[in-house]
Amino acid sequence: MAEPKRVRKVVVLGRDESLWLAVNTLERAFSKSDIEITAIELPSLLRAGDVYPTLRAQEAFHSLMGLKEDALMRASQATFSLGQRFSNWAKTRPPFFHAYSTYGAKFERVQFHHYWLKARANGLKAEFDDFSLSVAAAKHGRFFVPDEETDSFSNNDYAYHLGAIGYCQVLKQVALQRGVIHRTGRLAEALRAENGDITGLLLNDGQVVEGDFFIDASGAESLLLGQAMGVGLESWSQWFACDRILTTYAPPLTPLPSFSQASAFRSGWLGLYPLRDRTAVQQVYASVDMGEQEAFDTAGIVSALKLHGDAVVTPYSAGCRTQFWAGNCLAVGEAAVVFDPIDNVRLHANLVGMSHLISLFPIDSDMALERDEYNRNVTAAVERIRDFQICRYKLNQRFDQPIWDHCRAMILPDKLQYKLDVFEARGMLIAYDDETFEDPEWIAMLIGHGLMPKTYDPLVDQVNEAEVIRRFQQMLGFIRHSVEKMRPMEQHLGLSPAAGMSAQG
Amino acid sequence: MKIVILGGGTAGWMSAAALTRAFKPEFCSVRLIESDDIGIVGVGEATLPQVHDFNQFLAIDEAEFMRETNATFKLGIEFRDWAQRGDSYIHPFGVHGQAMGGVPFFQYWLRARQNGHDLNIEDYSYPIAACRHMKFDMPSDDEKSIRSTYSYAYHFDATLYAKFLRKWSEGQGLKRTEGQVVDVTLDAESGYIRALTLKSGEVVEGDLFIDCSGFRGLLISQTLKMGWEDWTQWLPCDRALAVPCERVGDLTPFTRATAREAGWQWRIPLQHRTGNGYVFSSQFTTEERAAEVLLANLDGKPLADPRLITFQSGRRQQSWYKNCIAIGLASGFLEPLESTSIYLAQIAASYLIELFPGKQIDPRISGEFNRLVDIEYERVRDFLILHYHATAGRDEPLWRHAQSMQVPESLVEKMAIFKRRGHVHRYKDGLFSPASWIAVYTGQGITPVGYDRQADNLSAYELLARLSEMKGRIDVNVAAMPSHADFVRDFCFDAKAASKAAMMGETAHG
């Protein structure tokens, strides 16, 4: 057998967020090593209204990459997000917010939600999300950057709505400045060695880009891992009924909301993501239940906004490759896994893939051990994200509508079913290995959608009612008081105040 | 709710104290039944840092606790003669070095080593350096300081600890009953335990029964017939001989585990004496030979005859079954090689509090308890197997057996990727962080052939400069630490008792 060959040349083939996140991550991790990074850029698929709503981890990623938040946000017309507002997911329950924050504060060693569950059973009117500072800020049209005072009550993070084209431009610019080799073109053929590994990429201009390791960042097409290496797709259609995204945009909202919205309707849901110069609109729906023309009409009605004329409908199908790394080829982003658009995990999925790769970056051509470890861990991480998303659909309470009835009836993956069983039994949240969403996010999601535990932690009964009421009032008072001091989003972004709003708001 | 705890060993009194602390008496009453006739298996004298959390939960005064249990501090375990005779490594309660630019320090060490620099990994661990110099001090809160890179546990007399917890629990109103159980009444329909009948004729009713009766599992096994999963195939030791000896020489801030011909020997330093024991396999040696080996390897004069303990490694198929929860040895046994027995009792008690049921036990609640406890036992099991398995330089039959045995698949995968490049994936539940795995792998001769390529982010010169700076910082800080013996003496000094003694003296003279 030949001596293993050291991996020196890594070639990333792809486009848009997957390409530029991948090369930046690689560059940051290996800039001073002997690894050479080549980006082959395929034509972009982005359109004017496209948006990347992120998770809260994005901020940490930017600071790790040494990206300045201000400049990045300006270039991508970005706004901050304190959470998501869900409306009409249950016919009998009011809309709720799912914030990037903890809810309430633990006392007497018991998590807040147990007290709330008991109080609610005894007639408390306050909703669970009334106990989140971020939710209160979002409802009042405010934004805040967490500080010591807010941290003393709860953890509050924020995410972004990033204009996709501007964001990718920034990432590309940074990567090129930092010395990543850049080519543009289209793939004609992936050249393969006898053992199946890729040796080079033949581009449509006749040139061959050789490499030791190939990253497929081509999006759902999965040009290298899927098409060249022949790694199959595992469909998740049994859990995700929607298969179309309608994308368009509307004029900006004033004042700028500090949250996104997901409003369910008969055939799916419609998401609104505020940007500075426009409002991005994504309507996600099931094609079995609605045709394209109807989808266009519905988007206008559900959003109640004046939508831009050239909306497009893109088919998608949630699912993942049966392996994310095969031979010397690894896929990130949608080339590896196409998530349902709910919960804004698209950018994050890229980061999960890349962060695992960074710590397992192959040493030489003998990379079977890294591959196994990577596939094992990333599969777990991907499934935990998927499970979180499944809950949104499973827990809907839109009765007598075929799509939603179907979602409520679906059989869950075992680990998720077990998690929901234990939560329902006693409000306890099980966290598995490699979770993206932390306990408070799961709890807020489950309670928000109305999965009310049958019992709560009995330790709650040890605290007398007057004390619980006092604590609740204290929390609500703190929230009220804090929100009064907060400023609208425009001021945080250095924009002129929205019409009709004074500096004091 | 009425909780009845059967058994007053360490597990029994830890459970009693934890439940008494967690629940107000009007919410739930806790009662403990123990028999003075039944001995306590006091093998678990060395602990893990988590015991510190337990004591804090009870708001126990640390100095008082140490005085009453003859405790000393523990920064890790020294393993001698494992990979081969003459070896010594320390598994510390802490990391090697500090991460640089998000890359684990260990990876920089690997790179230097693979570039021909024969640097000792121990030189880059603050707690190991403290151990080697017999020093101790409290960790710093300042995350940037090298003095924050460790935590600590204790060595103590488990019998005295049980007594200490008994005093504490009784002070909180716990009812203790002396007596032996002669009969158990089950509910005819549900099979739940309804009451225990004592030798005195007293009938003790309860809603929840905690079985801390030790190996025999009086309730979980003898009454409810819950089965046992045997792990002897991987952990062949089934006997231990324990003997205390006089304390001689330095007071080590660590436990010592020395591999022997058919098992291993522990050495646990207490304030007043040293605890010793030989854990061995009856398949590979005799009791007489084991006693000979043990007695030939003591620091000082033995203070008693060696006491034999027999056991079987494994765990209860379900620790919580019906309304009975087994904690401690009734729930599972893993030899004390990594000082896990007290931790396992502690974590079970804490899961029980977290999953405390109403009178009607939801099987989803007990099922979750069992899932969590299973993870804990399996994590420790795999880690212990590694110690036995990675012993390439030992040639006695026990070690040959351990080297060639089929280890669990979960461990095979972990070892393979570590050997390749020092990679350890962090898991959420259960013991042993990557730092612990790294210490034991490298200590037992599994040294990676590659390293994480992020470690190439420094020039060769910068790399060596950083390593040397790290070692320098550790050396300077360790030099300034007090000796473990001095620290224990000062920490445990009882001003009140001393002044009282002095007053008494004066009175006597006057």
Side-by-side strand order of the widest sheet of chain A? 6-5-16-17-18-15-19
Spatial ordering of strands, largest sheet of chain B: 5-4-14-15-16-13-17
Q: Report the major sheet of chain B.
A: 7 strands, mixed
The number of helical segments of chain B is: 16
Give the C-alpha Rg of chain A.
24 Å
How far apart the termini of chain B lie comes to 57 Å
Mean pLDDT of chain A: 95
Helix amount of chain B: 25-40%
Alpha plus pi helix count of chain A: 16
CATH architecture of one domain in chain A: 3-Layer(bba) Sandwich
CATH homology-level superfamily of one domain in chain A = FAD/NAD(P)-binding domain
Major pleated sheet of chain A = 7 strands, mixed
User: What is the assembly state of the chains in this entry?
Assistant: heterodimer
For the CA atoms, what is the radius of gyration of chain B?
24 Å
| Biggest interface, chains and residue tallies | A-B, 39 and 35 residues
| Alpha-beta classification of chain B | alpha+beta
Number of strands of chain A: 24
Globular, elongated, flat, extended or rod-shaped: what is the shape of chain A?
globular
Strand content of chain B: 15-25%
The general outline of chain B is globular
CATH topology of one domain in chain A: FAD/NAD(P)-binding domain
Pfam family, one (chain B): Trp_halogenase
Keywords (chain B): FAD, Flavoprotein, Nucleotide-binding
Protein name (chain B): Tryptophan halogenase
GO molecular function (chain B): monooxygenase activity; nucleotide binding
